[in-house]
Structure to design on (692 residues):
């Protein structure tokens, strides 16, 4: 066991304070990682504030982890000391169900082990990346290509794969008319990744405030959803819509923006059930779908894709003692577009 | 113009009375049809009772039409006098939009012309098949194979194609774990068609009352949804679920019955928006989709498939003056499984 510094929440105020946690000694299949940077994801905030159920306190959030390997177990073959590596939302899964064997560990039938607030194989509660180090099974560690700086790589481990996976699954490419709802941490990755795949990208944002950014990041079109004409003008004009907004929207209006056989994918999970009228689905064979992060092999493919196409998030690097203020700014949508904690300051 | 007997509703009570309507002289591309049988679809009842908006009264419903050709226009090449033919939910579409050119006339961008309560090309309001004769553009008339009796063929034109099209689109076959929600007019066709395609068919019905029927029609499994254990037992066990129930269900519970990448297709359109929780979609990349009848070529394919596989609906043939009582019985789910009006009694 080793003791490392971390930032943890102790109750549902979600306020984070500095503390220490224990990390296990690396087992034969484990990789020990010196965490360099960790991204702040909206899920971290939902979880520590008990908005998705009461978590196990004290809880260290963080599942956008980028660092350097400091030790490996005797059986480890995929990583070596000094490698730049990443850990995302999962640190384990059953490995033998139909999802795991298909490379869809995120949909493990026996429940993937999430990076924080989950029960690990040894019975302990997992603690996330707002800390100086972590020990993870080698199969849940991915290689970060050298051309990607670690601070910018961190948000790819959740925000990046969350957008990359549905873009691949629903086959976004040169013929795809793609809309991204919301230009935040997730949405701005959707714009960049979609554009890199060759799609014709439209941003649907509440206002035109971030329009200049959106076009610079790769969108060809930008519309304000507060303007009701947007919904008339864009009717039946998209093949794929990725919704990154977790507030409940008027989904019927957005579904009508899909062409025949189009799909709207929910990525920002709203707290309350969505109200979905049946006619917009039936009258053009449209689909409302969900997607959750991506598999491990697909996460590696995403990192390689980002290195090859020079796709990285827009980030604001902060010191750890700024994290509570950063949370407030995330909730106020006042970040362009992802906070990343420099963990040397923890 | 010719005057023919028909049954029409005059107000939103939906009560049908005998009347006469005018049919146009066949134009060069038209087919005149002596209607022999017409099925009673739940949509007829929704429409005449103004549950989907106030229709144009007086209104003759009926879009499951089977009959014999009595005359054809000079340019007609697809049908000839004496042919057994059918007409379903559409009698026209624009013919040039991306949907029409793809054989998806039901999703015509300019709005397909429905068989009743729609504005026809000549500005008149279309009147349906609860009548002795109808005149329809040849492209919206399909051939009924000789081996299908006309009374049993009638319901295939709506109930049949409504199930056949999604089964084909979502590729139901020998590997498909298929569930049908509701064993009514639509549902019983889903069981028969799904079984004929080789799928492993499960019926999900409120109770086990119709279990014997369901198994006889081709289902391998039958569960009562009033039993909460059903939802535990069947979790993640279907690839495709077709929902034929138009009442609002607890969709989250049904979505959880889908395996990873499974799809639940809404066929019975509920009046109120559906409440859809996001987690069941996200946690297994499930989809909620809609589908509406099928294209004309696909309708012909369905009739040929039914002839080849000896798939026909279970029907109760009635005289026209029983129609109002039949409506009451449809609303009480007291029909096994489709009423068909013998139009010689109109």
């Amino acid at each position: 066991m080793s003791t490392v510094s971390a930032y943890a929440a102790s109750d549902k105020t979600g306020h984070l304070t500095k503390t220490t946690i224990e990390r296990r000694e690396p087992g034969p299949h484990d990789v020990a990682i010196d965490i360099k940077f960790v991204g702040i994801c909206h899920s971290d905030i939902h979880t520590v504030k008990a908005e998705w159920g009461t978590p196990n306190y004290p809880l260290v959030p963080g599942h956008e982890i980028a660092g350097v390997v400091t030790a490996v177990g005797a059986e480890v073959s995929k990583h070596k000391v000094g490698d730049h590596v990443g850990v995302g939302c999962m640190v384990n899964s059953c490995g033998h169900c139909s999802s795991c064997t298909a490379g869809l560990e995120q949909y493990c039938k026996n429940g993937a082990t999430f990076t924080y607030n989950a029960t690990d194989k040894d019975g302990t509660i997992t603690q996330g990346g707002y800390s100086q180090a972590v020990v993870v099974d080698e199969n849940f560690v991915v290689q970060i290509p050298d051309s990607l700086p670690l601070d910018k790589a961190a948000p790819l481990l959740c925000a990046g794969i969350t957008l990359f996976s549905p873009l691949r699954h629903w086959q976004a490419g040169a013929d795809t008319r793609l809309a991204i709802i919301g230009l935040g941490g997730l949405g701005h990755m959707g714009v960049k990744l979609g554009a890199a795949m060759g799609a014709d990208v439209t941003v649907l944002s509440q206002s035109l405030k971030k329009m200049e950014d959106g076009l610079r990041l790769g969108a060809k079109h930008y519309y304000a959803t507060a303007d009701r004409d947007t919904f008339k003008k864009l009717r039946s004009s998209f093949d794929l819509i990725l919704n990154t907004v977790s507030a409940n929207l008027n989904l019927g209006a957005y579904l009508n923006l899909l062409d025949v056989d189009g799909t709207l994918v929910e990525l920002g999970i709203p707290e309350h059930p969505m109200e979905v009228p049946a006619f917009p689905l039936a009258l053009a064979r449209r689909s409302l779908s969900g997607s959750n992060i991506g598999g491990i092999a697909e996460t590696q493919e995403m990192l390689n894709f980002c290195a090859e196409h020079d796709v990285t998030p827009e980030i604001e690097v902060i010191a750890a003692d700024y994290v509570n203020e950063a949370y407030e700014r995330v909730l106020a949508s006042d970040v362009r577009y992802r906070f990343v904690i420099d963990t040397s300051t923890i």
In short: The first strand of chain B starts at residue 2 and ends at 9. Chain B is about 25% helix and 30% strand. Residues 3 and 21 of chain B are 6 Å apart (CA to CA).
